[in-house]
Structure formats: structure tokens, C-alpha cells
Write a structure and sequence with these properties.
The complex is a heterodimer. The longest helix of chain A has 32 residues, at 162-193. Chain A contains 20 helices and two strands. Mean pLDDT of chain A is 86; it is low at 328-347 and 507-514. By secondary structure, chain A is mainly alpha-helical. Chain A is 70% helix and 2% strand. Chain A folds into three domains: 1-134; 135-273; 279-514, no CATH class. A two-stranded antiparallel sheet of chain A has the order 1-2. Chain B is an all-alpha fold. Chain B has two domains: 123-484, no CATH class; 498-543, no CATH class. A two-stranded antiparallel sheet of chain B has the order 1-2. Chain B starts with a helix and ends with a helix. The mean pLDDT of chain B is 90. The chains are: A mainly alpha, B mainly alpha. Chains A and B meet through α6, α8, α11, α18 and α19 of A and α6, α7, α22 and α23 of B.
Chain lengths: 514, 544
């Protein structure tokens, strides 16, 4: 197997799917155990994948059944995919450990509904995410997105209460609109260019009405799934209502998948459409998301809703990378010298590295936050922010983890969030777009504001003792702390070392485009 | 013989190890007794550096670089002294306090950052230690848990974060100008004068560090936060922590290349600060608040000195400002401790505290033979003979007035119990700081070659230092006689504009929340989806 590292791509897909099928066969009593056993294997595969990509210094490609595109379907892992696959398995693994006892069938007890569904959905989610990161054609990506959506929505309404069912239904409808738009765009592209393979499309797509239409439809569809402002209103009730473990995965990973797709579309599949004004539009929506999400987070009365609105805001940061990758003054492209023109427009790697680092450190930090909020809610019996005074005394590790994760969100050194912000700010300077620097910095201040609302009473409250309704298992606190520490320690990954992001970008693979 | 590298490592390992030890409840409860020892390795490091060439420690893989040069070593040494004495004070102050574990954690965090800024030599390490110090100090400001402390904490934090933002942007601009991926401050300084972003960079750096020093109008947090903290924390806040701003200006402004415009601007802001805070300070009844305004005023003088150096490209301004700041650090730290000692001392023994406090207080105004007189002498060559020098002398008059007002308020704050006397821990740390505030400047003055002792004793120089004091004393008599006619001014003076501003912010938030409510409607969401498709498509069409 090791002779050809591209087999790893298949393994990364097969493992969760095999686990899912096995879990369905053996039932809920053992589903959790299967999932937990598979996760270290998945972690090993992901690590090997990252190492192989670095060693090959190029994307790994696996042609399914030996059929090359456009006839066959290829899997492709570049640096970006490898990073996200590793992040996914790390967060899903931590979630698994965190949820181990929560969704368990006790010996001698009848099997519960959630014990099977939670683990099956978690495995399905894992497989779907890997498929998103590895697929190299727009149709497989559509399948992956659907699989992702349909495993995410039941996680929202796992407890079956009316409120969460409504939130889940709203999520479903919105995701459905998104899928329809995406599919419409894909159909247009297929009609015009006769292929859905990303590598082939990148050479074929020309700036013409059908491509513009397709790009606009697909981007907006994916934006709805990413919950980018103003299409975000389904997210807070869905993410806040789900069980803590599920919220963690949804907020940390699921929304990033559709964002990943937007990046793939814009920079890999249709680079010829890469348009500075469109990039500014995307970033403007991002800036609005930062403002709205942060202000709404400031005004929430419940901790989980606050964290969910914080996700809305943090998504905004990720959309700021578009204009930082595409320089504004490069204007319109003439068809003839399109490629040379583009080579000049893609300026710095800072924006790429910063964006990826932002996404990854946010994934760890947000997972830690939702789990911390879950532990607090479980031990107090509520998550009203007004009544969190001195909770730091009762749950020091959990609150420390929450604070560390918050540090990363705010972009305080030495966290991953800080390194990301540093790189993004550098990119704003390099491309001469200081106004996005103002947005990034102002967003940090607002983030500080909503975290202060939680942390100030939690750490500096005047209550001398807090009585907990239910004890919190130490190992669950440690998992949360580990996730938070990951997001902080990411800042120590040497800023330049994130060149991994650049490996296998289509330009390097010789497809002619940066 | 222990190497400098080891010393530096131990200096930081000690507070960090103590911090980790706070994880055990048993240790945490006893931690304050170790406060006095935590900064001692840093003191040893500073002493090691005396009369040695600058020494650089570079850990490139972690992006950590330290430098031990003269300005850094002097400030590191005196800061360590103050932290040690204030730690001794704190261990008595906290005895039996229910929240002493919490205090220990924030004390040690702030200590680590406070010592770190003086030796950090690359942008990352500097920003890290600076942020650590700024944010951890919040825990000290709000420690008392009173509504007043909480309000002070919020104002402190908002402005501290604003300062962080200025600095982050300034640092990113600095780093962008450096060719290659070096983050060393030395390289940043070398490229700054020719950087395409020179002016915004210098503006952001002055704003960020000036905020930490309390330069007007970014001083509002200081007279609110410093008095709100517990006594030993006030001492380190007003003594050691604001010096992070001074070392920042020293490290990041290019003093060997003249930048006349920025130099003049910094001098002007500094002098404005020096006078403005005296005017506000004399209206304050609380001795701690008076001291805080005096800190603002003194940092204004330091800024003026650095501004003059920047304008003319004289690098001797760095040592002068360092020496001035070192004296202020010790004297102001000592005076804050004196406030605590006086509050616990009855009238019978009061003179034992008031007389030394008066010497230190007037020393800040430049009383002959005190460390303050030496500090004024040290900055004289930088200020020149012109208008700036005259204004600096006038500010010495103002300082004398302010410090006499402080002594007046201090005497009034003594314990009503005639036989009360301060606990031994308080008295000891105060004595230690008094001796240090007199002795250390005298020693440094000769050892570091800032000046020669013979100059100090010349009658002409003694008289030049004395007459501002006498005029200040005359004005103080007037203040006692007619002071009650002064209008009452709240702590933080111009902070009052924050209230209406806050209302506006809240109204904006309300508006945003209403908009969000509108976006939650299905038809609205659908409309937006359609609109976005049209916009994106249209923009691409237009761009082509």
C-alpha cells in the first residue's frame, strides 16, 4: 500500500463509510465503540497523507477504476485538502471522546435512539467531509455536499424537541435552496463545456455569460450553506440547539466544507472568472457578517447562542481572503493575455496561509467553545450568561479552555488566530487594501467585547462558591482543553511553514494558472 | 560563573514555574509569600549587563529574540526591584484574603509580561509580552470587585485593546517593510526611515505606546484604573507597567535618523500632557488619583525628551529618557506603597512616613540631591536651552505643586486610630523602596556614565533645581487657601464624553438587531438570495 501514497485517498474515504455500514449492522450498542476505534486509524491516515503531500511536493491523484477524467472520476489531494482532512479527523476524534458517555447504551438497558443515530451521523459526516476535500469534479462534490447536509441536519434535532426540529427544518430548507442553486450552476457548466472535472474546467472556462451565471448561482448556493451574511439566519438556532458535541462539529467543520468549495470554484475551477470586483463583493459580505455576527453575539442572553453568532462573525473573516488573493487594480482581463495577467494578479501567499490558518484555528477554538459551553450547561442546568458568575471556581479547566479558545478568536498572541490575523493584515498591506485591515482589527475589538461578557463574570465574579447540579467528568474537560490548546499552539507553527497550503495548487500542477 | 543565557532563562522560568504551580490549591494559597522572590533572577540578569556590550539571545525556530542592552537592563533591574518590594507588600496585604489565588495568577502573569518587554528584541516576542502585560493587568485592576473597580476595568480594557490594535497594525507595517522574513526590531528600525509606510507606522507606534504611557488624550484610563487596583498593584501599574510604553518608544523609534515632524509632534504632546495632568491632578481629592495624574505628567516629560531626541536625531535621548523613567519608576512605586502605609498609620507615628514621602515626592519635582534632581539633570542636554527647556522647568513647578497637593491629601488619609502602625510587611517594603528610590539613581548616575557627580553639587545647578520647587511651594500655599473654589473634575476627566458615545453605540446595536429581525423573514431571505446572484453575475459581467 505504501508504494503508492495515492491509495491513502481511497482509504480516507473508505474508512468512515465502512465504519458507518458496520455500525448500522451491529447496532447502537457498539456503534460508539466502532467510531472511537476508527478515529486513531483515521488520524494516522490523515497524518500520512499530509506527510506524503509534503514529500511529493505535489497533489496526489487517484483515478477511480483507472479511468482518467473526463471519462472517469479522480480523487485529488493537494496541500489544502490534506490540511482540512487532518483538521477534520482531529476535531471529530475529540468530539467522539467528548461524547463517549453521553451517547452510550448502558449494559442491560434497552438501546436508545440517539446512541445509534449520533455515531452513525458522526461517521457519515466524517466521510462526507473527506469526500468534499478529495473530490475533483463538481458532481462528486454535489454528492458530498448532499451527504454532508443530510448527516448534519439530523444532528441538529437529535433530542427531538419542537424547537430544535423547527431549527432543523429551517436548516434543511435553506440547504435545499443552496443545493438547487449549486446543481443549476453545475448543469450550466456541463452544458457549456462538457465536463465537470475541475482540472479540465480550469482550462476551458472563458469569461462569458453562461460561466458568469453558473459562477453566481453556485457561489450563492454555497454561501447559503456556509451561512454567510445575509444568508445566515438558519445557523444560530440550529447550532445553538444541537447537543454540544454536534454543535462543535457543525460550527467547526461543516460550514467550512461549503466555503472550501467556493475557494475551489473560484481559484481552481474557474480562475478565468476571478474578478476583483466580485472579490470585493464577497469580502463586503464578510465584513457585514463580522459586524452583524459580533454585535448580535454581544446581545445574546444564552451562551450557546452567543457562540453561534460568533461563528457567523468568524465566517466573515474567511471571506476577506478573496480580495486579498485577487489584487483590485488588476482590472479586467483581455482574453489573449489572460494567463500572464493572472500570474501578476495573484500576489502573496500571506492571504492563502492566513485564510487557512484562520479556518483551522477557528475550527479548534469553536469546537472547544461549544464543548465548554456544553459542560457548563450540563453542570449548571442552564447557560444564561447573566448567571455565570464565578463559574471559573467550579470548573477551572473548562473556563480556562474557553478563555484560551477565546484568545485565538480574538487574535491574541501567541494563538493561531493571532498568526492568521498577522498574515491577513500583511496581505492587506501587500495588496494596498488598508480598508480590510480596519475590518480585521475592528472585528477583533468586537470579538473581545462579546467574550468579555462571558469571561469577566466567569473569572472575576464575586460569588465565593458555586454549587454544581451535576459533576463534570475530568476527561471531558481535558478534551476541551486539548482542543483549545491546539488552536493556541497553531500560532507556533512557523508562519512560513504554511507553504503546505500552496502545494498542488493548480498553477504548480502545470495547468497553466496560478 | 553563570552565563547570561542561563540568567535570562531563569528570569522568565521563575515566574512561569510559579504560575504553573498555582495549579495546586495548596501552593496557590501560599503563593504570595513567594512574590518577593519571583523577580530576583531578573534583577541579577540586569546587574550582569552593567558595563557589558549588548548581548543577544536568538531562538530563531520559535521567533524569540532577547537583547540585554543598557536601557533595557536599567529598566529591567529597577522594575524587578519594584516588583519584589511590591510583592513583599502584597504578601502582607493578601493575608487571609479569600481571592488570593486569583490575585497570584494575575500578579505572576503581569510580572512575566512586565519583565519581558524590557528585553524582547523581535516583533513577535515584544507583542506577546506587551499583550500579556496589558491583559493580565486587567485582573489586578478589577481585583477588589467593587462596582468602581469593575467600571475601571472596562475602561482599562477597552483602551488597552485599542492600544493593542494600534500596535498590531504598526508592527505589521514594520514587518512588511523588512526585506526577507526577519522579525527583529533592529531590522525593522533599519528599514523604517525609508519605508513606504513610514508615517502611518510612526503614528500607530506613538499612539499605541503613548496610550500605555498615558499621553493626552489617550490617558483617560490611567487615573481611573491605577487608583482602583489594590495598593501593591497600583504601585506596579503606575511604576513598572506604564514603562512598557517608554521602552516601546525607545525600541521602535529611529533615534539616529532625524524625523523632525514626528519629533516635534511627540514633544508637543508630551508637554501638553505634562501640564494638562497637573491642572486636572490638583483638583483630585484621592491621593492615589493625584499620584496617577502625576504619573501621566511625568510620562509627558519623558515623551518630550524622546521627541526632542527624535527631532534632532540625538541618540543620547534614549539614555536620558531611560534614566528619567527609572527614577520615576522607583519613586512612584514607593509613593503608592506610602499611601498604603499611611492609611494604616495613626497620627503618632505619621511623621516617620510623611517625611521620607515628602523627600520622594519633591524629588519628582527635582528637589536638589534627590534622584529626581539627577533625572532632571540627565535630560537637560537633550531638551536644549530653548523654549522646550523653559517649558520643562515650568512643568517642574507644576509637578512640585501637584506633589505638595498629594502630600496634603496623603496626610489627611491617615488612620484615625492614633496609635495604629502599619504591619511590618508594609513598612519594610516601603523602606526598601525609599532607599532604592534615592540610592539607585545615585549609583546609576555615575556607573552608566550619564553624568559626573561633581556637576551635581555646583551651587548654580543646585539653585537651578531649587527655585522651581520654591515657586511650586508658593503656589501650593495658594492652592490650600483657595483650592476649594476649583471645580470638581471626575477621575479620567474627558472620559465623560464616553457616556453619550456609549448611548449612540447602544442605539446602533438596537438598529442592527432590528435589521437582523427583518433578515429572519423567509421572503426577505429569498429576495437576498436572488439579489446576490444578480449582483455577483452583474459584477462579473461588468468587470469583463
Amino acid at each position: 500500500m505504501m508504494q503508492d501514497p495515492s491509495n491513502l485517498l481511497v482509504l480516507a474515504l473508505v474508512l468512515p463509510v465502512a465504519g458507518l455500514l458496520l455500525a448500522l449492522v451491529v447496532g447502537g450498542r457498539y456503534a460508539g465503540r466502532i467510531a472511537l476505534w476508527l478515529m486513531p486509524v483515521g488520524l494516522a491516515i490523515a497524518v500520512m497523507l499530509v506527510v506524503s503531500v509534503i514529500r511529493a511536493d505535489d497533489a496526489l491523484v487517484y483515478d477511480l477504476g483507472g479511468w482518467m477524467p473526463p471519462l472517469g472520476v479522480a480523487l485529488r489531494a493537494d496541500g489544502l485538502s490534506a490540511i482540512f482532512i487532518l483538521t477534520t479527523v482531529a476535531v471529530i476524534g475529540a468530539t467522539g471522546i467528548f461524547a463517549r458517555t453521553e451517547f452510550r447504551t448502558l449494559p442491560g438497558q434497552p438501546e436508545t435512539r440517539t446512541s445509534l443515530t449520533f455515531w452513525a451521523l458522526l461517521l457519515a459526516l466524517w466521510g462526507a467531509l473527506n469526500l468534499v476535500f478529495l473530490s475533483n469534479d463538481l458532481f462528486s462534490l454535489f454528492v458530498a455536499l448532499e451527504l454532508l447536509t443530510f448527516s448534519a441536519i439530523p444532528l441538529v434535532c437529535l433530542d427531538g424537541r419542537a424547537g430544535t426540529l423547527a431549527a432543523g427544518l429551517r436548516y434543511l430548507l435553506f440547504a435545499l435552496f443552496g443545493s438547487v442553486l449549486y446543481l443549476l450552476g453545475a448543469v450550466l457548466l456541463y452544458g457549456a463545456y462538457g465536463t465537470l472535472d475541475i482540472g479540465l474546467l480550469s482550462g476551458l472556462v472563458r469569461p462569458e455569460p453562461v460561466a458568469w451565471g453558473a459562477a453566481a448561482l453556485m457561489t450563492v448556493g454555497l454561501m447559503a450553506k456556509t451561512a454567510l451574511f445575509p444568508l445566515h439566519f438558519w445557523l444560530p438556532p440550529a447550532h445553538a440547539g444541537a447537543p454540544a458535541a454536534a454543535s462543535a462539529v457543525l460550527s467547526a467543520l461543516v460550514i467550512k466544507a461549503s466555503l472550501f468549495l467556493i475557494v475551489r470554484l473560484w481559484f481552481d475551477a474557474m480562475p478565468a472568472l476571478m474578478n476583483p470586483t466580485a472579490a470585493q463583493v464577497l469580502a463586503t459580505l464578510g465584513a457585514a457578517a463580522i459586524l452583524f455576527g459580533s454585535v448580535l453575539a454581544l446581545r445574546q442572553a444564552r451562551l450557546k447562542l452567543l457562540i453561534a453568532y460568533s461563528t457567523v462573525a468568524q465566517i466573515g473573516y474567511l471571506f476577506l481572503i478573496f480580495p486579498l488573493i485577487v489584487r483590485p487594480e488588476s482590472g479586467s482581463f483581455a482574453a489573449a493575455d489572460l494567463y500572464t495577467e493572472l500570474a501578476a494578479t495573484v500576489v502573496s501567499t500571506s492571504a492563502w496561509s492566513g485564510g487557512v490558518l484562520q479556518a483551522v484555528s477557528h475550527a479548534f477554538a469553536k469546537a472547544a467553545m461549544f464543548m465548554a459551553a456544553g459542560l457548563i450547561a450540563q453542570s449548571l442546568g442552564h447557560d444564561r450568561i447573566a448567571d455565570l458568575s464565578s463559574i471559573g471556581r467550579a470548573l477551572p479547566i473548562t473556563v480556562l479552555a474557553f478563555a484560551l479558545a477565546g484568545m485565538s478568536l480574538m487574535g491574541l498572541p501567541p494563538s493561531g488566530g493571532f498568526a492568521a490575523k498577522w498574515l491577513l493584515l500583511t496581505a492587506t498591506i501587500e495588496t494596498g487594501q488598508w480598508w480590510w485591515a480596519l475590518v480585521i482589527l475592528g472585528g477583533g475589538l468586537l470579538t473581545g467585547g462579546y467574550l468579555f461578557r462571558v469571561l469577566a463574570p466567569a473569572l472575576f465574579g464575586s460569588r465565593q462558591s458555586v454549587t454544581l447540579r451535576a459533576p463534570v467528568a475530568r476527561y471531558r474537560e481535558v478534551v476541551v482543553l486539548a482542543l483549545a490548546l491546539c488552536s493556541v499552539l497553531l500560532g507556533f507553527v512557523r508562519l512560513g511553514a504554511f507553504d503546505l497550503v500552496q502545494i498542488g495548487r493548480l498553477a504548480k500542477a502545470g495547468m497553466g494558472l496560478p | 560563573m553563570i552565563s547570561a543565557e542561563m540568567l535570562l532563562l531563569i528570569s522568565f522560568a521563575t515566574p512561569v514555574a510559579l504560575l504553573l504551580a498555582c495549579g495546586w490549591r495548596m501552593v496557590r494559597e501560599r503563593m504570595p509569600t513567594l512574590f518577593a522572590f519571583a523577580p530576583l533572577p531578573a534583577l541579577a540578569t540586569a546587574l550582569w549587563a552593567v558595563n557589558r556590550p549588548p548581548w543577544v539571545f536568538n531562538e530563531a525556530r520559535l521567533h524569540i529574540t532577547f537583547v540585554l542592552d543598557m536601557p533595557g537592563a536599567i529598566l529591567l533591574g529597577v522594575a524587578a526591584l519594584l516588583w519584589s518590594a511590591a510583592g513583599l507588600y502584597a504578601s502582607t496585604y493578601l493575608r487571609g484574603h479569600p481571592n488570593l489565588g486569583r490575585f497570584s495568577i494575575y500578579w505572576l502573569l503581569t510580572l512575566t509580561g512586565s519583565l519581558g518587554v524590557f528585553v524582547a528584541a523581535d516583533l513577535f516576542t515584544f507583542y506577546l509580552t506587551f499583550a500579556l502585560l496589558s491583559l493580565a493587568a486587567y485582573g489586578l485592576v478589577v481585583f477588589d470587585g467593587t462596582p468602581r473597580a469593575r467600571r475601571a476595568g472596562i475602561i482599562y480594557l477597552v483602551l488597552a485593546l485599542l492600544g493593542e490594535i494600534f500596535l498590531l497594525m504598526g508592527f505589521v507595517l514594520l514587518a512588511s517593510a523588512i526585506p526577507g522574513d526577519s522579525l527583529a526590531i533592529r531590522d525593522a528600525l533599519a528599514t523604517l526611515p525609508t519605508s513606504p509606510w513610514r508615517d502611518p507606522t510612526v503614528a500607530l507606534l506613538i499612539a499605541g505606546f503613548g496610550l500605555k504611557m498615558g499621553l493626552v488624550p489617550l490617558h483617560v484610563w490611567l487615573p481611573i484604573a491605577h487608583p482602583a487596583a489594590p495598593m501593591p498593584a497600583s504601585a506596579v501599574l503606575s511604576g513598572a507597567i506604564i514603562k512598557a510604553g517608554v521602552i516601546g518608544l525607545i525600541r521602535f523609534l529611529p533615534f539616529d535618523v532625524p524625523l523632525p515632524d514626528w519629533g516635534v509632534a511627540l514633544t508637543a504632546v508630551g508637554l501638553l500632557t505634562a501640564f494638562y495632568s497637573v491642572v486636572i491632578g490638583i483638583t483630585q481629592p484621592n491621593p492615589k488619583t493625584v499620584l496617577a495624574y502625576s504619573s501621566v505628567s511625568q510620562m509627558g516629560v519623558v515623551a518630550a525628551v524622546l521627541g526632542m531626541g527624535l527631532a534632532a536625531g540625538q541618540s543620547n535621548a534614549v539614555m536620558a529618557a531611560t534614566f528619567y523613567s527609572a527614577h520615576h519608576l522607583l519613586a512612584k512605586g514607593a509613593l503608592f506603597l506610602a499611601v498604603g502605609v499611611v492609611a494604616a498609620t495613626g497620627p503618632r507615628r505619621l511623621w516617620w512616613v510623611l517625611v521620607p514621602a515628602a523627600i520622594l515626592a519633591l524629588g519628582i519635582g527635582g528637589l536638589p540631591l534627590t534622584g529626581g534632581a539627577l533625572a532632571k539633570l540627565a535630560v537637560k542636554p537633550v531638551l536644549g536651552d530653548g523654549r522646550v527647556e523653559l517649558l520643562a522647568t515650568l512643568s517642574a513647578i507644576g509637578t512640585t505643586l501637584l506633589m505638595l497637593h498629594f502630600l496634603h491629601r496623603l496626610a489627611a488619609s491617615a488612620s484615625p486610630d492614633p496609635s495604629a502602625s502599619a504591619p511590618i510587611g508594609f513598612a519594610l517594603s516601603w523602606m526598601l523602596m525609599f532607599v532604592a528610590a534615592i540610592g539607585v539613581p545615585w549609583t546609576l548616575y555615575g556607573v552608566t556614565g550619564i553624568g559626573v557627580y561633581d556637576d551635581v553639587l555646583q551651587p548654580k545647578i543646585l539653585w537651578a533645581a531649587l527655585w522651581p520647587i520654591l515657586i511650586g511651594a508658593g503656589l501650593a500655599l495658594g492652592l490650600w487657601r483657595w483650592g476649594r473654589y476649583l471645580p470638581p473634575i471626575p477621575e479620567g476627566d474627558i472620559v465623560v464624553v464616553g457616556q453619550p458615545a456609549l448611548r449612540v453605540v447602544v442605539r446602533c446595536e438596537d438598529a442592527l438587531e432590528r435589521v437582523e429581525g427583518g433578515l429572519r423573514q423567509w421572503p426577505v431571505a429569498g429576495l437576498f438570495m436572488l439579489l446576490l446572484i444578480l449582483i455577483l453575475g452583474g459584477v462579473m459581467f461588468h468587470g469583463y
